C-alpha cells in the first residue's frame, strides 16, 4: 500500500510537471509566432485603415488571414469575446490580459483600442508608426539570431573536427593498447571496441550535422522559407518535375536504386552502395531546387518592377484591373510575364456583381502561380485593402515601400547566411585533408611499428593496424563529416533541398578524392 501510494504521488507530480512544461513550451511557441507575424499584421491593418472598414472589420480581415499565424488567432479571440460581451473594447482588453506576448501584442491591442476611440485618422497614424516600430524590433531580433548562429557555427566546427581526430588517436592507441581490439558481442555479431567507437563517431557526426541544420532552419525567418508541394496526379507531378523539387524528389527516386544497384554490381561495400544511391539522387534533385530558386529570385526582382508600374497607372486614376492589363502589355517582366498576363485576364472577368470576390480569387491565383513568400506577403496586402474599399493609390504607395523593404531584407539575409555556407564547405574539406594526410603519411608507419616485436614493458599487437581496413574506416568518417557539413551549408543557403544538394556534392567529392588517390 505504501509503495502504491508513493508511486501514485510520484506519477501525479510527474504528470503535473510534464503538463506545466508542455504548457510553457506552448506559450513560448505562441509568443514567438506572434512576434514574427505581428509586424506584417500591423502593416496590413495600416493599409486597411485608409478604407471604409471600422476597427472590428479590420480585425476580422486579419483573423481570416492564416498567414498571420498566432496574431490571427488572437484577432479571432478578440472578435469572439466582443461577440459575447457586446463590446470590442472588452475583447481587446481581455486578450491583451491573457496573451503570452506581454511585451508586444498586449500593448499593441491596448493602444489599438485607445486610438480607435479617437477616430480613424488617429488609428491610421498609430498603425503606421507601430508598423515601423515593430519592423525595427523584428530586425533587431534577427540580428540577435545571427549572433546566436555564429556560436552555433563555431560549436559545429569543433564537433565535426573532433571525431576525425578521435579516430586518428584511437588508431594510434590501438598499437599500444591491444584491449581496444577486444571483441564486443552484439545481436548482429561481434565487433571490436575500436570499430564501435569509430562507427559511433561517424553516427555522432551525422547527428551533429542534423542538429546544426535544424537549428539553422529554426533561426531562419519563417516568412523567408519556401516550401514546395507536389501537384495532384501522376502526369502533373511528372510535368512539374523540372521546376518543382518536391516532384523531382519523387520522379528521380529510381536514380537512388540505380546508384545502389551499380555499387552492388561493382562489388563495393554496402555503405559505398548506399552513398552512390544518395549522391545519384541528391545531386539532380538539388539541381532542380537551384533552378527553381533562380526562377523565384528573378520573379521577386520583377515583382518590384510590376508594383512600381501598376502604382504609376493607379496614380493617374486608372482602375486596378486596367492598370494591370496595361502593365502586362507594355512592360517586359521576364519570368513574371506569364503570371501577370494571367492576372490581367482574370481581373477582366471581375466586372460583375461578384467582382470583388473574383478579384480576390484572381489575386490569390496570382500568388499561387508566382509561388514565392515575397509575392504572398505583398499581394495579400492588396487583396484585403482593396476589398475594404481602401484608396487604391494609398494602397500601392504602401505596397511599394513594403515590397522594397522585403526584397532588401531577403537579399541581406542571403548575404549574411552565405558565410555559413562557406563554413560548412571549409570544415568538410579540412577534415578530408586531415584524414588524407594521416592515410598517406602516418598510417603505414604505425603499421610497421605494430609489426615490430614488443620490447620490455610493451606488448604490441601486430594486427592492430591493417592499412586497408583503417583507410576504409577513415573514409567512412570523412564521408559522414562531408554529409553533415553539407546539411549545415545547404540549410544556411536556402533550405532542405539545398542541404540535399550540398551534402551530395561534398560526399561525392570526398569519395572521388579517396578513390582517386587509391585509398578507397
Task: Give an overview in words.
It holds the Pfam family T2SSF. It is found in: Cell membrane. α11 runs antiparallel to α19. β1 and β2 form a beta hairpin. The radius of gyration is 30 Å and the shape is globular. A two-stranded antiparallel sheet has the order 1-2. The longest helix is centred in the N-terminal third of the chain and has 57 residues. By secondary structure, the protein is mainly alpha-helical. Among the domains are: 90 residues, no CATH class; 192 residues; 40 residues, no CATH class. It is built from 19 helices and 2 strands.
Instruction: Record the strand order, biggest sheet.
Output: 1-2
- Find the count of extended strands (DSSP E, 2+ residues): 2
**Largest sheet report:** 2 strands, antiparallel
Give me the strand/helix succession.
Answer: HHHHHHEEHHHHHHHHHHHHH
Helicity, as a percent range = over 70%
Intertermini distance:
65 Å
**Average pLDDT:** 81
Q: In percent, how much strand structure appears in the residues?
A: under 5%
Radius of gyration: 30 Å
Q: Helix/strand-derived class? A: mainly alpha
Low-confidence stretches: none
Oligomer: single chain
Q: Which term fits the overall shape? A: globular
Count of separate DSSP helical elements: 19
Amino acid at each position: 500500500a505504501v509503495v502504491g501510494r508513493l508511486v501514485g504521488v510520484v506519477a501525479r507530480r510527474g504528470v503535473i510537471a510534464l503538463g506545466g512544461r508542455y504548457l510553457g513550451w506552448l506559450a513560448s511557441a505562441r509568443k514567438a509566432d506572434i512576434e514574427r507575424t505581428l509586424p506584417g499584421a500591423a502593416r496590413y491593418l495600416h493599409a486597411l485603415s485608409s478604407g471604409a472598414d471600422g476597427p472590428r472589420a479590420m480585425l476580422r480581415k486579419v483573423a481570416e488571414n492564416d498567414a498571420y499565424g498566432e496574431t490571427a488567432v488572437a484577432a479571432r479571440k478578440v472578435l469572439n469575446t466582443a461577440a459575447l460581451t457586446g463590446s470590442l473594447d472588452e475583447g481587446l482588453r481581455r486578450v491583451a490580459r491573457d496573451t503570452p506576448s506581454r511585451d508586444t501584442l498586449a500593448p499593441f491591442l491596448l493602444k489599438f483600442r485607445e486610438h480607435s476611440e479617437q477616430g480613424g485618422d488617429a488609428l491610421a497614424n498609430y498603425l503606421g508608426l507601430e508598423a515601423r516600430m515593430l519592423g525595427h524590433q523584428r530586425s533587431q531580433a534577427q540580428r540577435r539570431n545571427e549572433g546566436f548562429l555564429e556560436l552555433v557555427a563555431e560549436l559545429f566546427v569543433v564537433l565535426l573536427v573532433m571525431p576525425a581526430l578521435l579516430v586518428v588517436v584511437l588508431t594510434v592507441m590501438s598499437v599500444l593498447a591491444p584491449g581496444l581490439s577486444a571483441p564486443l558481442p552484439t545481436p548482429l555479431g561481434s565487433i571490436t571496441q575500436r570499430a564501435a567507437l569509430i562507427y559511433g563517431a561517424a553516427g555522432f557526426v551525422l547527428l551533429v550535422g542534423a542538429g546544426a541544420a535544424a537549428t539553422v532552419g529554426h533561426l531562419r525567418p519563417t516568412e523567408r522559407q519556401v516550401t514546395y508541394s507536389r501537384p495532384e496526379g501522376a502526369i502533373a507531378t511528372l510535368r512539374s518535375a523540372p521546376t518543382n523539387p518536391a516532384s523531382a524528389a519523387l520522379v528521380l527516386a529510381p536514380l537512388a536504386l540505380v546508384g545502389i544497384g551499380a555499387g552492388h554490381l561493382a562489388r563495393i561495400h554496402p555503405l559505398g552502395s548506399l552513398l552512390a544511391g544518395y549522391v545519384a539522387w541528391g545531386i539532380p534533385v538539388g539541381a532542380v531546387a537551384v533552378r527553381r530558386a533562380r526562377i523565384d529570385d528573378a520573379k521577386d526582382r520583377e515583382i518590384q518592377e510590376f508594383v512600381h508600374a501598376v502604382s504609376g497607372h493607379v496614380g493617374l486614376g486608372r482602375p486596378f484591373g486596367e492598370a494591370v492589363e496595361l502593365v502586362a502589355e507594355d512592360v517586359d517582366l521576364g519570368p513574371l510575364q506569364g503570371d501577370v498576363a494571367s492576372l490581367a485576364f482574370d481581373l477582366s472577368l471581375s466586372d460583375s456583381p461578384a467582382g470583388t470576390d473574383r478579384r480576390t480569387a484572381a489575386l490569390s491565383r496570382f500568388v499561387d502561380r508566382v509561388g514565392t513568400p515575397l509575392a504572398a506577403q505583398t499581394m495579400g496586402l492588396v487583396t484585403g485593402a482593396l476589398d475594404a474599399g481602401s484608396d487604391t493609390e494609398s494602397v500601392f504607395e504602401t505596397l511599394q515601400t513594403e515590397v522594397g523593404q522585403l526584397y532588401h531584407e531577403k537579399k541581406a539575409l542571403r548575404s549574411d547566411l552565405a558565410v555559413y555556407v562557406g563554413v560548412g564547405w571549409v570544415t568538410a574539406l579540412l577534415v578530408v585533408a586531415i584524414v588524407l594526410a594521416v592515410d598517406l603519411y602516418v598510417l603505414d608507419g604505425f603499421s610497421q611499428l605494430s609489426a615490430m616485436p614488443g620490447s620490455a614493458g610493451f606488448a604490441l599487437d601486430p594486427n592492430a593496424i591493417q592499412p586497408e581496413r583503417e583507410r576504409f574506416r577513415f573514409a567512412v568518417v570523412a564521408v559522414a563529416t562531408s554529409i553533415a557539413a553539407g546539411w549545415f551549408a545547404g540549410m544556411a543557403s536556402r533550405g532542405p533541398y539545398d542541404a540535399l544538394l550540398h551534402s551530395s556534392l561534398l560526399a561525392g567529392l570526398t569519395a572521388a578524392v579517396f578513390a582517386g588517390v587509391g585509398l578507397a
